[in-house]
Hints:
globular, alpha/beta, Rossmann fold, 6 helices
Amino acid sequence: MQDDNTVIELNAVTKSYGKNTVLNSINLKVKQGEFTVIRGKSGVGKSTLLKVLGFLETPDSGTVKLFGKDVTKLNDNQLSELRLQNVGFVFQFFNLLPSLTIQENIELPLALSGIKKPQRNERIAELLSYFQLEHLAERFPDNLSGGEKKRIAIIRALANNPKMIIADEPTSSIDDDNIELLMTLLNKIAKNQGVTIVMTTTDLHEVYPSTSDYLLKDAQLKQNLLHKIPIYHAKLPVENTF
């Protein structure tokens, strides 16, 4: 890791689709344990920016650095390995596999990482217990509410103890209580486990426990200096760590 603990860094990143430039010379640096919020209206390119950060999209120009190393030129297999070992994703539309139970959905990234079955079961039980969702383990995604699906998607993102969590509008489709629970959790794992958090939101005014706050508009990323840091109080036992 770099001396300044930078986890992910974008330098002059540009991305276009045809004649539509959605990211124009974007610069962003996120350090270990930081909680970064990127705001913007629907369709401005927030999801594309997250895909670049998570090595799912290659920029047209500019560099993407993970722990100081340029990953822009890596092949698909190398990028897949980086994602598996370093990044947890929370997608806007859940991306839960409908043919697998909730237990199996959470287990998938653990199995891909070569973790043995007993350790996988232990990890899944720990996470489901933390969210008080043990009763959902044998259900299928189609039998869950939108809020339940979101929480399961978050649990799956946490399964591999990632160094960075990328969350695409994680507060959508869940109620205020679950939003507070989610923000408490993300804030806690950023501070206590040093996990880097990058999340997007269409809400331009909601206060989140972020360490940095940006606005994406007209393909430009600008720091939002008006945000304030609230105090989120954990509703769950402090000793229950990941």
